[in-house]
Amino acid sequence: MLYVYKCMPNKLHIGWRSNSIFILFMAMLLSLFISRAALSVCIFLFVVVSFSHARIKEQLLSFISTPLLWSMSLLFLVPLLSGTWSKDTEKWLEVIRIKLPLLLLPLAFAGPFNFSKKMWNVLAYIFIIIIIGGTCWSMFQYINNINAVNDGYLKAKTIVTPLLNDHIRFSWMVSVAALLAAWLFYKEENKTARIVLAFATVWLVIFLHILAARTGLLSFYIMLMATTVWFILKKAKTKQGVILLLVLIAIPVAAWFTLPTLQNRVKYMQYDFGYFKEAHYLPGANDAVRVISLIAAWNIMNAQPLNGTGFGDLLTETNKWYAATYPAMIEQDKIYPSSEWLLYGAACGWPGIIIFTFVMLLPFFISINNKLLWWMLNGTAAFSFLFDIGLEVQFGVFIYSFIVLWWWKWMNAEKM
């Protein structure tokens, strides 16, 4: 009787906390489309609630003993350490503020909260619905100004998207939502739900091709190719694999002949490719400037191989390299190195790039249910960081860390 008496308050407390965290999960996802301030408040509340229990020591031990959690926190701790040799303290503090969720969210996810199978599924459906809502908003903007938007694709512009027009991060979220909708369709037994999920998947794939953002499109095709191989080799379902292979070929062909945004995007890429290939500077060019920024990062990293510039001084040192190498470069093209891998390397030397690589590869070696889904999520995330710096902006930090940790907690809770 005494044991039951002691355990009941803990169970009630865990239940209250889990329900509160479930609500905060939804609030964090919604706040992505509302405001940065709302997102910060929701993250703070999530962390506070996750530690609202008497077993904080156990939660910290769980964090330390879980490789996925402590490894993700290295993406915050490495920039934090670089403050000891960064001269621009103000800029360094700004970087630390943006990256703080890379420490706080893993600590919070180490907590003992539990969702029911129904709650996990509801969260998945809500995520898909929110993303579809964002795609519909973008399409409304597109339809209202269709000719101007189509012409804009010839000048490296895209359809306006949520996340303050962050089409790179949004396109990756759309590809993840398409993956999730397709997987739920595959597992779902209810006929009505399967029809809804089928339409959701098709729409999200169509939108990815209308938006024509490379991060989202390449992520989708990586996922589709991986699924095709999985069906043929792992499941020995050659028929389904062949069907997916035909789909893999048919979708880009159909999109090319029907979508002017995709056509114009490819035309601009062809125009920019000559500058991109030779790393020649072209004012306002997209890919050419990105390649130059990668060359800058590589040179800066090798000039200071042991510790780099420090995150506080990275942009200053990169601008110095631009000034010395491409003196005609206009101010708006002086960007951060366009790769998280090389950015961590330039800021913290070879130790930085090695640690970043370790963090990106570790998820592929942990034990988890449904490795295919897990590998596709982390594979596309790691791939996107090759040519993007999503961890230097608030939305990108949250999207990466929250979605990866959400799926990790979900897949460990049950077999998907």
- Oligomeric assembly: single chain
Order of helices and strands: HHHHHHHHHHHHHHHHHHH
The percent range for helix content is over 70%
Structural class: mainly alpha
- For the residues shown, what is the average pLDDT? 90
Shape: globular
> If you compute it from the alpha carbons, what radius of gyration comes out, rounded to the nearest whole angstrom?
22 Å
CA distance, first residue to last residue: 37 Å
Tell me the strand percentage band.
Answer: under 5%
Q: What is the tally of beta strands?
A: 0
Main β sheet profile: none
How many DSSP helices?
19
Low-confidence stretches: 1-9
Write the layout of secondary structure elements.
Blueprint: H1 2-31, H2 36-50, H3 56-64, H4 67-81, H5 89-99, H6 101-109, H7 117-144, H8 146-152, H9 162-165, H10 167-187, H11 191-211, H12 214-234, H13 238-258, H14 260-278, H15 287-303, H16 314-325, H17 340-361, H18 371-384, H19 394-413
Description:
The chain has 416 residues and is mainly α. Helices cover 76% and strands 0% of the residues. The protein has 19 helices and no strands. The protein has helices spanning 2-31, 36-50, 56-64, 67-81, 89-99, 101-109, 117-144, 146-152, 162-165, 167-187, 191-211, 214-234, 238-258, 260-278, 287-303, 314-325, 340-361, 371-384, 394-413. α1 packs parallel to α7 (117-144) and α18 runs antiparallel to α19 (394-413). The longest helix is centred in the N-terminal third of the chain and has 30 residues, at 2-31. The radius of gyration is 22 Å and the shape is globular. The model is unreliable at 1-9 (pLDDT under 50).
